[in-house]
Amino acid sequence: MKVPENLNYSKEHEWAEQREGGVIRVGVTDYAQDAMGDVVFVELPETGQSFAAGESFGSLESVKAVSDCYMPVGGTVTAVNEALLDAPELVNKDPYGEGWLIEVEPSDEQELENLLSAEEYKQYLTTLKDEGGD
Amino acid sequence: MSGPLIFEIGSPGRTAAALPENDVPAQRVEEMLPPAMLREEPAGLPEVSELDLVRHYTGLSRKNYGVDTGFYPLGSCTMKYNPKVNEDVAALAGFSGLHPYLPGELCQGALQLMYELEKYLCEIAGMDRFTLQPAAGAHGELTGMLIIRAYHMQRGDARRNKVLVPDSAHGTNPATAAMCGYKTVEIKSDSRGGVDLDDLRRLVGDDTAGLMLTNPNTLGLFDENIAQIARIVHEAGGLVYCDGANMNAIMGIARPGDMGFDVVHFNLHKTFSTPHGGGGPGSGPVGVKDILVPYLPRPLVECRDNGTGGKEYYLDYGGEQSIGRVKAFYGNFGVMVKAYAYIRMLGATGLKEASRYAVLNANYLKEKLKDTYHLPYDRTCMHEFVLSARNLKDTGVRALDIAKRLLDYGYHPPTVYFPLIVEEALMIEPTETESKETLDRFAEAMQRIAREAVENPELVTGAPRCTPVQRLDEVTAARKPVLRYRQENA
């Protein structure tokens, strides 16, 4: 499972990348795309919409199920990845690159500190494997 | 594929039926219909002989798979045998030939049947009244939640805008809540597969309209904390809705009304043995406690003294606070007749026995398979259980592949990838009508597939091979659906 060092992660398996101008780019992790299976439809918000951290901003539909996507940090959506509407498979092929979902102007940059580092997220993934109820 | 389509075997002018000579003056269609209503090109209907037509439909029927063909352990769907006597009863002319606008005095038998069916359902559910109108389970959910909404609104309690739903719930639960204008709040399951009480206490409040709960739940587990769960929600002013999808496990043994539920729906087409799959018709009656009776859809069937010492059944359209009708006329009446026949045929003892055998069969199969597949919640189950294929992940074989391979062994696969909280889920519901021999044979097939996954994984990931069409490309079908057949050269 790929977990790039330069990103921050949520326990809901979203990644957040700090980009120029204070914008945060958001996507789902390699683990998430693998667990979901082939993504066939992506539902994204409109730019200008605001969401709190942990709130659902859209959903990914795979052949198995529809999964909500949650904001790693609160903020206003400044861009959505329109390419996914025609090519949802990008989420599977390149979850950290071309398969990004939205860009957000964070309402509180401090919230980034609540996210996991790559190391912590890797550690978190190993705990999921052992969970009895899963 | 399996031969040409019916569109591809015809020839212009060929026909399967010989119509009698026209004995009225012929009129051109252009003279009867306005130009805007006329087709610009011919409809391209198949033109085939009677034999081709018979082969077409016989071929289709042979490709169909139902519980009359073989074992159908589709978890959550209760694919039990549908006794054929139900069909005989529903086909009686006195039932099947009724016009829905007949005056009451000409359909007393039908009204009596509805009246008595409601009483039986009340007794089985521990509820005070039922509406028989909803046409299916999800329709029952919608009706039930509209009743809960009406209750809060009537009390002027409009700030309640949230419905709590466990993470193991049927997808229809949050959908229902959304249709009623509520926001869904997800509650976690605890390590035993039940509602996490701490999470429930944290999320419940004065904005809670209600909780939607399936008990036994979608893991096939009975939530023993149900009385406490209901109390927590009631103390916060909310109501508790029982998704009765899994009632087949507890008929005559435990009653939603006694557990603290305020509303419940039954799936007559599952629990009470009426045919389903392929779109219905279903029937999802909704039962409520006294406090909610005013909001039930109307009409309800009532009974009064007919003045000469007998009884008269009639439709009562009253009910100022009723949420209104939810279905044309009175619901899917034919389905009610079949469920009524089933209840009368089994009686109180028989229904209880049906549930006990459903639970026994599920536990038997679970014990046979739990060493072959991962069993995430190792408890005595109810009418169904959920395995995980995650122990085979290293072989590259997934739950979907196992489901496909079962087709080669002649079985309908279990439900896969549901509930969502179990990775690579295989949800198996054998029902009470299967014999031990059938269960043994199925278990053997499941064990063989697990061995194949290790020894020859391509056999499983490439399945099915023995079906009219082989592995379908579900991804392309979903991403780039072809929704219409187009005739070549047409």
Task: State the main characteristics.
heterodimer; A: 134 residues; alpha+beta; OB fold (Dihydrolipoamide Acetyltransferase, E2P); 6-stranded antiparallel beta sheet; 3-stranded antiparallel beta sheet; 4 helices; 31% strand; globular; B: 490 residues; alpha/beta; Aspartate Aminotransferase, domain 2; Aspartate Aminotransferase, domain 1; 3 domains; 7-stranded mixed beta sheet; 16 helices
What's a concise summary of this model?
The complex is a heterodimer of chains A (134) and B (490). With 134 residues, chain A is of the alpha+beta class. Chain A is 21% helix and 31% strand.
Helix and strand layout, with pairings?
The complex is a heterodimer of chains A (134) and B (490).
Chain A: E1 8-9, E2 14-18, E3 24-28, H1 30-36, E4 39-43, E5 50-51, E6 56-62, E7 66-70, E8 75-80, H2 83-86, H3 90-93, E9 102-106, H4 118-130
Antiparallel strand pairs in A: 1-2, 2-3, 3-9, 4-6, 5-8, 6-7, 8-9
Chain B: H1 29-32, H2 50-63, H3 84-91, H4 93-96, H5 108-125, E1 129-131, H6 137-154, E2 162-166, H7 172-179, E3 183-187, H8 197-203, E4 208-214, H9 226-235, E5 239-244, H10 256-259, E6 263-266, H11 268-271, E7 286-288, E8 300-305, E9 311-316, H12 333-369, E10 385-388, H13 399-408, E11 415-416, E12 425-428, H14 436-455, H15 457-461, H16 474-479
Helix pairs in contact in B: 3-12, 5-12, 6-7, 12-14
How would you describe this structure to a colleague?
The complex is a heterodimer of chains A (134) and B (490). Chain A is α+β, with helices and mostly antiparallel strands and 134 residues long. Chain A has a single domain, classed as Beta Barrel (OB fold (Dihydrolipoamide Acetyltransferase, E2P)), CATH 2.40.50. Chain A is built from four helices and nine strands. Chain A is globular and about 35 Å long. Chain B has three domains: 58 residues, no CATH class; 261 residues, Aspartate Aminotransferase, domain 2 (3-Layer(aba) Sandwich), CATH 3.40.640.10; 123 residues, Alpha-Beta Complex (Aspartate Aminotransferase, domain 1), CATH 3.90.1150.10. Chain B contains 16 helices and twelve strands. Chain B has a seven-stranded mixed sheet with strand order 1-7-6-5-4-2-3, sandwiched between helices. A three-stranded antiparallel sheet of chain B has the order 10-12-11, covered by helices on one side. In chain B, strands 8-9 form a two-stranded antiparallel ribbon. The mean pLDDT of chain B is 95. The chains are: A alpha+beta (134), B alpha/beta (490). The interface between A and B is medium-sized, with 14 and 18 residues.
